[in-house]
Amino acid sequence: MGLAILISLGTWQFNRYQEKLESEARRDARAEEAPLELKTLAGSKLEELDYRTLTLTGTLDTSHTVLFKHRQYQKRPGFWLASPLVFEDGTAVMVNRGWVPFKDGPKLAKELSQEPQSGKFTGLFYILPQNIADARTRQALSSGKLSIKGELTQWNSYDVAGVQEAMPHKLPDVPAILILDESHNGSPFPLSSIETLTKPYMTSERHMGYSAFWYTTGGVLLLLWLAGSSGLVGSYRKRAGAHANRNDSD
Question: What is the structure's pLDDT at 81?
Fold first, then answer.
């Protein structure tokens, strides 16, 4: 039973290694492509835009700004500031406008959300491989205890899907966000969070390391079982015991 669990863990990590390797290769390849200018995402295959640098034209609806908590920049605590970018056709996409420090984050966010901003916005388009729901904030919004409009809601997890559901605009069906590049850095905030935001928690190398660990552990367990079944372990213990008894009698 234990061997089967270890082998299954090793196989699962190896499969994750292959998936992450493909994702990293796609990310690196698309990062080298020239920026793509779009006026809407409607009709686009979003999976083909993942990790692409896009320049989108629209208006930031700053009245629906949100803060994502527990975000670090150079080991400093803070928030990610996000607002929907609305296109001429009425559709929209969430935009990560950058990082603001924890101490003054809410105050800065309010100052940065006074008026809608129109123009071209360049950044990395990113589809979250895993969306972690903030159940508490979702419940507060659905019950009316919080409002997404005019209030600066603070989300405890990077719940892009939950934010999209709460917005009045038509947003993508997948948790997707445009992460603004350094050209949109504020003075002094917000600061671009591209590297921090897209850096995977588990790289392909780490998945391979875990896979090797579980397979190796399973192999050791198998060898111990075979040694015990063949009597090698038992006979060694008997010989050791007999030797100890002779020493005592001497």
Answer: 96
pLDDT at 239 over 60: no
148 alpha carbon, distance to own chain's centre: 23
Q: Which residues have CB under 8 Å from 133's CB, separation 6+?
A: 157, 159, 161, 162
Reported as a single tens digit per residue, the pLDDT across 19-63 is: 667 766 776 777 778 889 999 999 999 999 999 999 999 999 999
Question: From CA 197, how far away is CA 115, in angstroms rounded?
Answer: 26
Which amino acid appears at position 204 of this protein?
S
* Residue with the larger pLDDT of the pair 212 and 122: 122
Note whether 160 and 80 are within 8 A (CB).
no
- Residue 55: other Cβ atoms inside 10 A: 15
The secondary element (H helix, E strand) that includes residue 180 is strand 176-180
Query: What is the torsion angle, in degrees rounded to the nearest 10, for the CA atoms of residue 66, residue 64, residue 191 and residue 197?
Result: 50
Q: Chain-wide mean pLDDT for the chain?
A: 84
**Kind plus residue range of the DSSP H or E element containing 229:** helix 204-229
CA distance 226 to 220: 10
Q: How many helices (H) and strands (E) does the chain have?
A: 8, 8
**What count of other Cβ atoms lies within 10 Å of the Cβ of residue 67?**
19
- Cα dihedral sign, 79-165-194-210: positive
